[in-house]
Amino acid sequence: MLPYVVSADIYLLLAAWAQAKGFILPDDSFFLAFREKFVDQLIKIFSQVDLLAEMDLLFSLRTWLAGNRLPIVSLDRVYLPSLCAAYHPLELTRAVGQANQDLGLRPRAGAPNLIQQLASLSVSGQTEVALVDDVIFSGDLLFKVITVLERRGIRVGGIYAGVGIAEGLEKIARLNVPVSCAFVYDQVVDEVCERDFYPGVPLAGRLLVGSNNVGIPYILPDGQPGRWASIPEERQSSFSKFCWQQTSDLFSAIEECSGWPVLIRDLGRSISSCPVPNARFSRLIQEKTIF
Fold first, then answer.
1. Which of 10, 119, 174, 237 stands 20 to 30 A from 126 (CA)?
2. What CA–CA distance (Å, rounded) separates 81 from 96?
3. Would you list the domain boundaries of the chain?
4. What phi and psi, each to the nearest 5 degrees, are found at residue 83?
5. What does the pLDDT look like over 133-176, one tens digit per residue?
6. What angle do CA 123, 129, 135 make, to 5 degrees?
7. Distances (CA, A) of 285 to 135, 242, 250, 280
8. DSSP-assigned states of every residue in the chain
9. Angle 5-32-45 (CA atoms, 0-180°, nearest 5)?
């Protein structure tokens, strides 16, 4: 029985967004009940569901940081920023085209390409760094980053990841770089970030290339829940409707706590199917025909 693994991250992402925008989030009890409903929905699809708590991931990362003495290069935009301000970010994300065709990893909106991002490390004179990522799945990206850094005379002295899958860890092991992970799995059905199921949450979904920070969530009708999140075809419609309803509930709760509406233009990531900037997001979800 293989687990379906989800890394919890929406609270951390929304907390930073709310602080920047002046909104107020509901309390911990709301998110606890919210996530219980999400896990209950997934259990209808998969036999074993592991929702990895943000606090557990943060505790493990904090412990690793206490022993790390190297400059940090981070692909993680969620967990590390809440604990540490001194690091060099690598701005990369999964990207798709207009027809949802996979375009691989691309720079985030406004960021230069990978080679240019890594070039600044060479200029700064670093000779050894540590890498941080949220998930090591296939290991391909980290393998590439390590290889490019080595060509520039920069050694990777250690890696921290929130989640490590055996296939990816074995690939990194060929490079003789020590790796620490909060959670390790031999095999999984899939490993998905919580945010990717909730349109409008910062960093949610895959980046639409050529857009101004438009995210394509891992649910219908925008995204590909089967290809991107291993949701069986017969479950995709009901699961997607559930996620849209939860998204509406989430932003309605933020509005209630804040005392004013969340408009499309306020969202941390734009949505292609909700193009009206002054529309109230939660109401637009309820009024529009999703399917």
1. 174
2. 26
3. 14-46+196-205+212-291, 55-188
4. -115, -25
5. 999 999 998 998 899 889 888 999 999 999 999 999 999 999 99
6. 120
7. 31, 12, 12, 9
8. -PPEEEE--HHHHHHHHHHHHT-----HHHHHHHHHHHHHHHHTT-S-EEEE-HHHHHHHHHHHHHH--S-EEE--SSSGGGT-S--EE--EEEEE-TT--EEEEEEPTT---HHHHHHHHHHHT--EEEEEEEEESS-HHHHHHHHHHHHTT-EEEEEEEEEEEHHHHHHHHTTT--EEEEEEES--SEEEEGGGGSTTSTT-SEEETTSSSEEE-SSTTTS-HHHHH---HHHHHHHHHHHHHHHHHHHHHHHHHHTS--BGGGSSSEETT---TTSBHHHHHHHS---
9. 40
Q: Which two tokens stand for residue 196?
A: 């990717």
Structure tokens that stand for 240 in this block: 């997607």
Q: Residue 21: which residues within 8 A CB-CB, separation 6 or more?
A: 266
Neighbouring CB atoms inside 10 A of 127's CB total 12
Q: Are 182 and 163 in contact (CB under 8 A)?
A: yes
Is domain 55-188 annotated with CATH 3.40.50.2020?
yes
Matching residue, tokens 């701005």: 91
pLDDT per residue over 246-288, tens digit each?
999 999 999 999 999 999 999 999 887 776 788 899 888 876 5
Peptide bond into 217 cis (omega under 30): no
Q: What is the pTM of this model?
A: 0.94
Cα–Cα dist 173/142, whole Å: 11
CA angle at 19 for the pair 18 and 25, rounded to the nearest 5°: 40
Distance CA 4, CA 16 (A): 27
